[in-house]
Amino acid sequence: MLIIIQKEMVCNLSYCNGVFKPLLLGDFLKHNDMKTHYQILIIGGGTGGIMTAAQFLKKDKTLDIAIIEPSDTHYYQPAWTLVGAGTYDFEKTARPMASVIPKGVTWIKDYATGFTPENNIVSTKAGGDISYDYLVVAPGLVMDLSLIEGLKEGLDKGVVCSNYTDPDHTWEVIKNFKGVNAVFTQPTTPIKCGGAPQKIAYLAADYFRKQGMANSTNVIFATPGSVIFGVKPIRETLMKVIHRYGIHFKPFYAPFKIDTDKQIVYFKNTAPEENQCIIMEDNSLGESMTGDTIIEMPFDMLHLAPPQTAPKFVKESVLVNEAGWLDVDHNSLQHKSFKNVFGLGDVAALPTAKTGAAIRKQAPIVVDNVLKLIQNKEASNVSYNGYSSCPLVTAYGKMVLGEFDYESNFTPDPELKKMLIFDSSKEHWRLWILKKYMLPYLYWNKMLKGKNV
Predict the structure, then answer these.
(1) Whole-prediction pTM value?
(2) Is residue 11 annotated as a catalytic residue, yes or no?
(3) CA nearest 360: which of 338, 323, 391?
(4) Catalytic residue selected from 16, 161, 193, 277
(5) pLDDT category of residue 272 using cuts at 50, 70 and 90
(6) What is the per-residue pLDDT across 296-312, written as a single tens digit (0 to 9) for each?
(7) Region for residue 224 given its phi and psi (left: phi exceeds 0; alpha: psi -120 to 50; beta: otherwise)
(8) Mean pLDDT value of segment 5-33
(9) Catalytic residue among 11, 161, 277, 390
C-alpha cells in the first residue's frame, strides 16, 4: 500500500512521545509488510470514524483496523457556533489528526474515491485499491455551494458569512454590523446540526441588544421549513425566544440565489398562500415579490448554512439511496444490500438530525453488529431509535437542549438531573456551561477515546 503525499510516501503511523506520526516509506518497510487488506476498514477521521475505531479497540485490541482520512486536522465543530459569536477560540476547536487516531489503528492518509462492494474494495486517490472484511462508511458530508446561485462568489466575503465554513469571519461580520436587516437562513438540503443556523441568530440578536442596536436592527430567520423546531416542548420555548428578541420568523422561505453586490437574497416561497398576505401586511423588511413564488429580501448582513450533500465518491456509488445518502437500515445501521458494510453519522440516510450526539448512540450499535458478524452471528442489534440532540444556545449564558428520536418525541437524558436541570426544554444557564465547557472536554477526553459518556 503506497500512499503518496507531497513527494513523501506515507503508509502507517509510529507512536512517539504520546503522538502518532506518519512513517516514511523507508522506515515503514523496515518494520512492516505492506498491506492492502484490513479486517475492518473505516472511511472518515471525523467524529464517527474515530469514535467507532476507538470503541472497536475497547472491545478487542487484536482487531486489524485502518482509517482512510486525508486531513491533517480534526475539528470539534459544535463549538463553531460559539466562535461565530465571539465567545470561543477557534484554535481550541482544532487538534492534529494524528493525535486523535486511536493507538493500534493504521492511518491511511489518502482520499477514498470509490467502492466495489461486491468485491469488498475501496479505491483511493494515491494508494490504489484496499480490500476489507468489514467496512464502516463515515466520511461526513460536504458543502455544495453550487446549489445556491452566487454563493460561491460571495461566501465568507464582506457581509456574507457562515459558521459552517469560517466562524471567525462570522464574528467579524456581527461585530461590524451597523443595523437594519440581519438575515439568517438555511437551505432545503439536509445539514449538519439543523439547529445551528438559528443558534447564531439568537446569539447575534442578544449581541445587538447588548450593543443598544435592537431598535435599528431587523433580525430575520428564514427557513424552508414550516416550524422553528420539530419537537413540541422545544418549539414552544424557541417561539418565546423569538418573541423576546423581536425576530422576524419566516417559514416556507427556500433560498436559491444571493446577489452580494446588491445585497439581496432570493427565496422561493414554498407556501404562497401562507406568505403573500404576510408580506403585503408588513413590508418593514423591504421585501418584494415576483409572482407568487419569488421573494427578494435586502440584507445588511447574511448568515447561511450552505447546501450540503454526501461526498461525491459516496453519492455516485451503488451504496446510496435515491436521495444520494448511504442506504443503511434505520435501526441496525447495516447497509441494506451489502451486509458487511455499515454507515453512521452525517452520510447515513437516517431520518434524524445529523449531530455528534446522534453518532454517540450510533457507534456502539455499529461496533456490536460488526463484532457479531465476525463471530458468525447476525447483526441483530436494532436498537438505534433515531436519538439525536441539538444544544440550542438562545443567549450568551442560556441554552435549551433538544433531545429526540425518530418520532420527534422529547427524550431528555435523566443524567441532567445530576446538574440540577429538571426540564432541559427550558432555557438554563447550567446548559450553557454544559455546551461551552463540559461537552468539549467530554468530546476530546471521553468520546474520541471510546469511553462511554
Answers:
(1) 0.90
(2) no
(3) 391
(4) 193
(5) confident
(6) 999 999 999 999 999 99
(7) alpha
(8) 40
(9) 390
